[in-house]
Amino acid sequence: xxxLRAGGAIFxxxxxxxxxxxxxxxxxxxxxxxxxxxxxxxxxxxxxNGEIRMENTELSQDEIKNLYETSMAQRWDYLASDEFRIRxxxxxxxxxxxLSTFEEISALEIGGNxxxxxxxxxSLGSFTELTTVEPYISPKVKYIFEEMQRKxxxxxxxxxxxxxxxxxxxxxxxxxLSLAKDFSELKADVQTIRxxxxxxxxxxxxxxxxxxxxxxxxxxTQGLTLIESEKIVINTNEKFSITKDIQTRxxxxxxxxxxxxxxxxxxxxxxxxxxxxxxxxxxxxxPSEMLHFGESGYEVQQTFSAxxxxxxxxxxSFVWLKSRQLLTFPSxxxxxxxxxxxxxxxxxxxxxxxxxEINGNEILIVRRSFFKRLKFEIKGWVPSAIDPESCDxxxxxxAVNSFEFI
Amino acid sequence: MPRITRxxxxxxxxxxxxxxxxxxxxxxxxxPLYAIVANSLMAKDVLIIGSGGGFTxxxxxxNVPSIRNLFLVDAFLAETGNGSPLDITKRSLDYPNIVINRxxxxxxxxxxxxxxEEAYNKVIFMI
Lengths: 406, 127
What we know:
The complex is a heterodimer of chains A (406) and B (127).
Chain A lengths: L8 E5 L4 H10 L5 E3 L5 E5 L15 H14 L11 H14 L5 E6 L16 E7 L8 H9 L3 E3 L12 E5 L9 H17 L2 E7 L2 H10 L4 E9 L10 H4 E8 L11 H14 L16 H7 L4 E4 L5 E6 L1 E5 L6 E6 L6 E2 L5 E6 L2 E6 L5 E7 L17 E9 L1
Chain B lengths: L8 H5 L17 H10 L4 E5 L5 H9 L5 E5 L11 H6 L14 E4 L4 H7 L5 E2 L1
Helix pairs in contact in B: 2-3
């Protein structure tokens, strides 16, 4: 800010987040304008002849840390809404019959912010020890965690503090470890969670229809027996600007086999999934040798500027392409076949850079020139084969079953 | 005057995170605001911190003729699908509506001392 000239202006982004507004108010002494556009736009202008007002704008380390933690904690505030609380209700309903068979229950919940499950299931059995691991707590739900503490629930900030525990119920809702600061921390967290899972009797997981979370869940639950699963579709299109895949949630209850000899038996194979996960989240130190293998979301994003990869119930993947695609042909390849999901046949505008042919639901693109990078536009939205009603909130995406370079 | 029209939708909408600036469906979002303020200041040096997929750089390059230097700072995580400032330099083929004067672009990977030294006393406009 100190380098802003007199007569200059600053725009701020993301001012819809309360902590950003609060910080801007503090730094700019409330002398800025906030516009309700997109994620919020703030504008500050410095007077031509005004004095340099911002002498004490340096944030202390504590203030920076606090700001970061608040912003992290608020990222998932929508999960505390009435619409999303249905997740907890469904799980509570399902868990009742399993927990009634336990004489004593020691439970551990990992990352419950902002809608922890533990306080809602206390009536389901006789709990002896209750712990929750929560690095960030949103200011909106701070009272819930304070109440939990009053009820005797221990709150830990880091996973390593609870690694030695042997809970017989482990809960991990909204499977995600994207906050790990680097690959080695991610690996350590994953190993801790896996070992906690294996020490438990019942494990509860919940994931959005978001590929990185699904990879992670697959990895963490390897060897466990799925005893119950339910897909929940939450309709919050008008309330939150979040995508369909985030609104589609799968709740799963797993039992842990008594015979535990196979634990972490195929570590190398499983590790490749964590690498994909780390690369997706661009974590420092993630190995890159896996990038060229497997049909990962990362690979698809490299090829197309696609923004989502999903898997249908049979495990077959499909890709949500943008209607306007930027494409890079690999060396030596001149043709690309794209097979779309059912629906109206899309149209691709011709260009002097390429020609296109349409055969049923297939489109063949042949590049004409030496340009490897080209752009094509697909007109007409094609609904997903799985969910014909499915549509991205920006109406930009098109479902593709597969693609192949020739 | 800003030259932003719906005709340019294809150009801008494709930039990741354009919708977070309110640019989607039938809305131009904050793009006219950015352009009007920059034009009224006759901004010569613009600094964009977190230029990501390139929405705001495109708005400035296309609509603010007075710009001499456009400073872009980003973490360069194109592989995550967020785009990166480097993409902008490669996109003249893909965005025929925009003629990018590469001489105007000054790209930095992270906020560094060198960057601050260079930008200090020059920048009058940040986003």
